[in-house]
Every structure is written in C-alpha cells, then in structure tokens.
Amino acid sequence: METGFIKKSVVVRTDIDNTWNYLSKISSLNWLENHKSTKFLSQKKRGVGAIRLISFEDGSNVEERIVGWHPKKHFSYIATSGLPLDSYHATISMNKIESGVKIVWESYFSSNEEKSDFNTFTKFLSQFYVSSLRNLKVELEK
Q: In 3D, which of 5, 10, 1 has the Cα closest to residue 133?
C-alpha cells in the first residue's frame, strides 16, 4: 500500500472573518481548479455530517463528507468516492498572521494502486492544490 501527504498554503490579504465566511460555504467552490458544480447530498449544509458532491469539467465526481468543523479555525473532510484512492482525509485551516491570513490545505491518503500511478496522482493533486489556492487568493482579495 502506498501512502502520501500533501501540504500547501497561501497568504491572503484579508481577515479571518472574511476567510471563514467564504470557505465555510462548502458548496461554493468556484475557486477550485476545473470546478463545474457542487450539490449537497445531505439535508445538513454546514458542519460535521454535511455531504457534498463535486463535479469537475472532465466529467469526474467526488463525494465528500465533513468530519471536522471548528469555526474560524479549520474544517476537515473525507472523500467517500470518486478518487483513485482507498482513503483520503483533508483539512483546510486558517490562521491570522501579520500580513493577513495564512490558509493551509493538507491531506493524507493511501492507495493500493501501482506506485507509478500513485505518484502520478500525487503530483496531480499537489498541482491542483497550488492552482486552487491561487484562485482562492484572487477571490478573497477582490
């Protein structure tokens, strides 16, 4: 079994309240690279237990369940389908710093795929985080 970890961050010139208000709307994901749409699969729209289905421009869909929720600090989620992984847990956190807010997106994941396929997906995911965080910075600094 292969395991991986990715951690990417961005500093945004804004405050914690604005950052949390934007990111806690967990179906408003226009900042995600190649995002097409998001819909809720649960009655719950925020907090632990909320389930969303994210559709991408390439036709892929990823189902995620919120498993951690600490307002103005972080939220965590797991992917339950749609990724070439056996497990995926991610956290998006935010911390006030002198120049604004530092947003960190980190994930742990594993797969029984061949090592070369796993490494290819890990590289893709890392680039996806970087591009998406760049988009998020633009959105939050408008």
A: 10
